[in-house]
Specification:
Layout (H helix, E strand, L loop, with lengths): L1 H8 L3 H13 L15 E15 L2 E18 L4 E16 L12 E14 L4 E14 L8 E14 L2 E12 L2 E13 L4 E4 L12 E6 L4 E7 L2 E6 L10 E18 L2 E18 L5 E7 L2 E11 L1
Antiparallel strand pairs: 1-2, 1-16, 2-3, 3-4, 4-5, 5-6, 6-7, 7-8, 8-9, 9-10, 10-11, 11-13, 12-13, 13-14, 14-15, 14-16
Length: 309
């Protein structure tokens, strides 16, 4: 409930409601949906805790809450078109000596995102993917209009058989005084009836899609473990060490998870893991680095609830 409260009190809640309305109400008459999946709409809520760790002479921890929705706009043999939106609140808590730049660099960070994904199956074994994304990330009190990162993602993959697919893609992103290019491997490979290797995350400004090894224990239970590179970059307010500047938190989350499918339309994921090779940086308003420090391994835990309607 604390997570829902943090999201609802943020000034962007109206933005989420409008996008949810658009997602639910977007016309899609004339295109077939997946059998048994209703309107092709899904909603998920995540609560993530990154436990306290050391950085320079200070310490910090993060509570993260994420609400996201996806809607199939088109589902045909020639194209699958999906709209996705998200809203996230990251609550940072720092403590340390006042002389340390990491004693209180920022507190509440808000993120809003929207993306349109298109999949183009072919009569052969090749498939193609194209996506456009818009993402805003800013500290509470900062100018959100100056926090936009936009980009495109393209990939091609080859289906060796129904459950074995490999490919290559690239993501191009611009914003927050930086241009990023992420190459990534497209992997969805069944090793046998129980084991498979796949991309667990979405590619975006935060980083590539990572890899996860998955074990299907039963029809209701699944166990997985994986890792990925992640970057959180956002606009700062007009106070502190870097007024109107930019902060970036990077690291390699590694995890194990247990997933329970309560029904065909409801799934619960529980994660435990750690952020490895973490680094934090502060930049001025032009993107010139002012401070940069590594932080110690940070344990993390997460719960994600997803429902398909």
């Amino acid at each position: 409930m604390k997570g829902l409260y943090c999201i609802m009190r943020s000034k962007g809640w109206t933005f989420v409601l409008v996008l949810l309305y658009v997602t639910l109400g977007f016309p899609h008459t004339g295109f077939a949906q997946r059998p048994g999946e209703g309107s092709g709409f899904s909603l998920s809520f995540a609560d993530v805790v990154q436990f306290e760790t050391d950085i320079a002479d200070s310490r910090f921890e993060v509570s993260r809450y994420l609400l996201s929705a996806d809607k199939d706009l088109v589902f045909s043999r020639k194209m699958i078109l999906k709209l996705g939106i998200s809203w996230q609140v990251d609550e940072y808590s720092f403590s340390g000596p006042p002389a340390d730049p990491w004693s209180d660099p920022f507190k509440t960070v808000q993120k809003a995102g929207a993306g349109l994904n298109a999949i183009f199956p072919t009569n052969g074994n090749w498939g193609y993917f194209l996506a456009g994304t818009l993402n805003w990330s800013w500290e509470e009190g900062a100018d959100s209009a100056r926090s936009l990162v936009h980009g495109i993602i393209v990939s091609a993959s080859y289906n060796f058989r129904r459950d074995r697919r490999l490919g290559f893609g690239i993501g191009l992103f611009e914003g927050l005084e930086e241009n990023k290019i992420f190459p990534y491997a497209v992997v969805s490979w069944s090793l046998n009836e129980k084991w498979s290797l796949m991309n667990p995350l979405r590619l975006g400004p935060a980083g590539p899609a990572g890899l996860e090894l998955v074990y299907d224990a039963s029809e209701s239970w699944q166990i997985g473990g994986g890792a990925a590179y992640r970057s959180s970059r956002f606009r700062l307010d007009d106070e502190g060490t870097a007024p109107d500047g930019i902060a970036e938190m990077t690291g390699v989350p590694a995890w194990v998870r247990a997933s329970w499918r309560a029904s065909p339309k409801v799934r619960l994921d529980v994660y435990a893991g750690a952020i490895l090779a973490g680094e934090a940086a502060l930049e001025d308003s032009s993107g010139r680095r002012l401070e940069s420090d590594s932080y110690n391994t940070a344990p993390l835990a997460a719960v994600i609830l997803k429902a398909s309607l």
